[in-house]
Amino acid sequence: MGRFERHKVTRIFKDYNCSQCTDYEHRKYLFASFISRDPKRSNIGNSFILLQQFLRLMTEQEQISVFDMFKIGVGPSSSHTLGPWRSALSFLESLKRNKMLLRVKHIHVDLFGSLAKTGTGHGTDIAMLLGLSGYDPVTFEVDKLTETVNGIIETKKLNLGSEQEISFEFKKDIEFHFAKSLDFHPNALSIIATFKDGSVFKETYFSVGGGFIVKEGENPASVGTRVQLKYPGDDSAALLKHCSNTGLAVSQIVMQNELSWRSEEEIRNGLLNIWNVMTQCVFRGAHKGGELPGGLRVTRRAAELNSKLTQGKKYKTFDEWKKVIRSGGNDFKYTLDWVTCFALAVNEENASFGRVVTSPTNGAAGVIPAVLMYYNNFINPVSLNTTAEEEAALLADNNIRFLLTASEIGSIFKKGATISAAMGGCQAEIGVSSAMAAGALTELLGGDPKQVMMAAEIAMEHHLGLTCDPIKGLVQIPCIERNTMGAVKAITAAQLSLNSDPSKAKVSLDDVVKTMWNTALEMNNKFKETAEGGLATNVPINLPEC
Ligand code: SF4
Fold first, then answer.
1. Closest atom of ligand 1 relative to the 483 alpha carbon
2. C-beta of residue 207 within 8 angstroms of C-beta of residue 87
3. Ligand 1 atom at minimal distance to the Cα of residue 482
4. What is the pLDDT of residues 404-452, one digit of tens each?
5. Domains with residue ranges and CATH for the chain
């Protein structure tokens, strides 16, 4: 960066009191704020390159593990449900660490920005109740959600951290500040504990997408274990360089980096568990009918499609179901219907507070399972006579490779742009998940690292500008169908890249990441998870007053 450019960018951050800050997400948000508040300076602000260079100059490199990208949780939203839930758990940790938990008399929650605007539809208030009660989103029995939440609301009692019973009035003690946003990120919340002696303790959290949270005043770079990665990098150029220097595939580079955090056995077991949670979600969703909660009266469609496709054939378990699926052949329309069914199943589960895996978010959780189910059942199916154990062993390597590659592509988007719809609209969710799936599928189909990057680029290129406008703030319309589109685009992008020469490509993955971020900066806030534009305002809905 030249001296003049460095001066310009340093001044931007100084204007926003950020010259000492080392927080990656904070810098990105301030940069976005700077542009939107002062259009006269947009000629400076539009230079994404300047921002990237400045971030590299001033911050430590963001380190993202595959287990940060794929997190087991509860629907419907990673940023509006899982992030707030994890914030509440973090707040409980602070209380316990400071030996304050048993002195708490009262808790109040303030929700700001997008968390207020779409918090009811996204279950933010419910997540706060469960988090403050000390439940873990990974292990909480989702079948007990309604009963647990109703119990707190009706009794007006909340067992804080499962240790300290306090009075809690759901309608009063969770406050939605619809007209107020905090200066860090559109998804913000504060939790205030009042003690028996009248003193208070407050923490503010930002849910920055994909279930990631940032506590105010805390430098995320210092949170968790920082490690020396064997193959560090922020973008696809660095990744491709590592691949060409070593001859390793993308998934192998990622595996080497993951080994900095944990053993190979832990990585493999952890990823197989994630895949297991994803497949259970597909199976549950494909067998549940009825309407989704939330008042929109959206009919679940995965189960109906499943019964049309399986044509009354008998099965009981997931493994038997897969055999029925494979017995139908792999004609294009049949395959396409199944990809649709898999994606619908996950996102209908997500919309009904089911257990899902962020990939990279809850709203986009159906794309990756749908594409990997497509690969396992139609591209590389094991013989119908193979036992479940033999099949698990045969498929394990492929499933692990897929998740490792997909995670790295998601990380490139998180580092260079965003995976938060409140920052970048739906291109940051469905677009990123489609790019992740496209790249990962390409590797499994034999593509080289350049083709992997090309597939991810193609998938995102055709999601650029995609807005987030969920009707009634629920993660249902357009979200559920949109996962089917993301999955199909991923498959198309993989095929296109496998039939192309990446050396002739005009657009690189890094170009598209920059373009996505520029688009996010220019996108009207109405289309960033506020339910204030698009379908959310143009589709009439008749809801009972309550
Ligand atoms: S429109 Fe897209 S980004 Fe917005 S809530 Fe739905 S899936 Fe998420």
1. 7
2. yes
3. 7
4. 999 999 999 999 999 999 999 999 999 999 999 999 999 999 999 999 9
5. 3-58 (no CATH), 77-222 (3.30.1330.90), 236-538 (no CATH)
